[in-house]
Amino acid sequence: MAGPVETRVISHLHPEGSFDPADHEVPKGLEEIWRFTPLKRLRDLHKDAPLDGHDYEVEIDVAPEVVAESVPVEDSTVRGSSTYVPVDRISARAWEAADRVFTVTVPAETVASKPTWVRFTGTGSEKAGAGHVVITAEPFSKATVVIDYFGSATWAENVEIVLGDGAQLTVVAVQDWADDAVHVSHHHAHVGRDASLKHVLVSFGGDLVRINASVEYAGTGGEVDMLGLYFADAGQHLEHRLFVDHNKPKGRSKVEYKGALQGKDAHTVWIGDVLIRKEGVGIDTYESNDNLVLTDGARADSVPNLEIETGEIEGAGHASTTGRFDDLHLFYLQSRGIPEVEARRLVVHGFFNDVIRRTGVPEIQDRLLQTVETELAKHVGVADVVADADLGAVSEAVGR
């Protein structure tokens, strides 16, 4: 008789999960999953800061076919339906401290007539709070859900995303916080057989934003697109960590994140990891991260990873690039009479345009284009970027 199948992820990138915060040691900054995060700026979310703050407002605009409600934790029947188990101390503390669960449910075989919007506005950052969101797309449904974050807050949360068989779901989360906000979140998606998820993370605001996004498959044939866009100004720390667990056959995943940085001590972190288990035969996956450094004094860390346990796959690859403006692009535009400052602006817009277009939500697309314009206008030094760098290959690692 065969022994039990090992399902735990054995990797230094993925500590064993637990709902009990005591099972997660207080980070010291030396751990692989914390080494890029400035712990002193977390306002003790990783230690023992109370998570009982309620300085926020929630406004919803729900598609008529979709059901949204907020219920006490003890009355929730869907919390934990994604099978997620917290993998770090902040996530476990948020799970324990959240007193309500906000749910968005798309009934089976329903096609939503418009996106559902959840607008979260923080009204103070002195008291930390914890939240829990569950988005469920029942079998063969189709919908888009947008979560917008504004204002000042110190916020820890877990977001569960559950797709039934054949469901099609787009989830967009926009971190447009005030400059003093600290936001630490974990998004986890459970993707059913032949279901399709588009997951989009956009980070512009906040003092420190750290978001983990993970995916696992509940059946064969699941498809996942994970898109990301971020723009860091002076002093900002924006960190995104992605994990795709190909635990079922014939799945597909594509991860594409793009970021820009400007100003002293602007710091972005992107950690991507794809695990292809022995069961993941016939899968196809690719992950990429591109960073555009607009000024001196900014730093982008980008680490793609592939963990492969079977060679019976359609394809697997990863890429990471970090560089400054492309002199050839600038020369091409300037040779056609476009002033240098305008040429640089066009290059940045071109860099982001594909990801913005693929969000699939027109209101978000228009807003992001305007936000990029606003970010560029913040820093006069964008016209004085060091021009003698090797633009195409400051850092590049590609695996196929």
Q: Quick one: overall form?
A: globular
Portion of residues within helices = 10-25%
Task: Tally the structural domains.
Answer: 1
The total count of strands amounts to 17
- Helix and strand composition category: mainly beta
Unreliable sequence segments: 1-6, 380-400
In percent terms, what proportion of residues is strand? 35-45%
First and last CA, distance: 38 Å
Series of secondary-structure elements, N-terminal to C-terminal: EEHEEEEEEEEEEEEEEHHHE
Report the C-alpha radius of gyration, rounded. 21 Å
How does the major sheet shape up?
17 strands, mixed
Number of helices: 4
- Give the rounded overall mean pLDDT: 90
List descriptors.
globular, Fe-S_cluster_assembly_SufBD, SUF_FeS_clus_asmbl_SufBD_sf, Fe-S cluster assembly protein SufD, SUF_FeS_clus_asmbl_SufD, 17-stranded mixed sheet, mainly beta, single chain
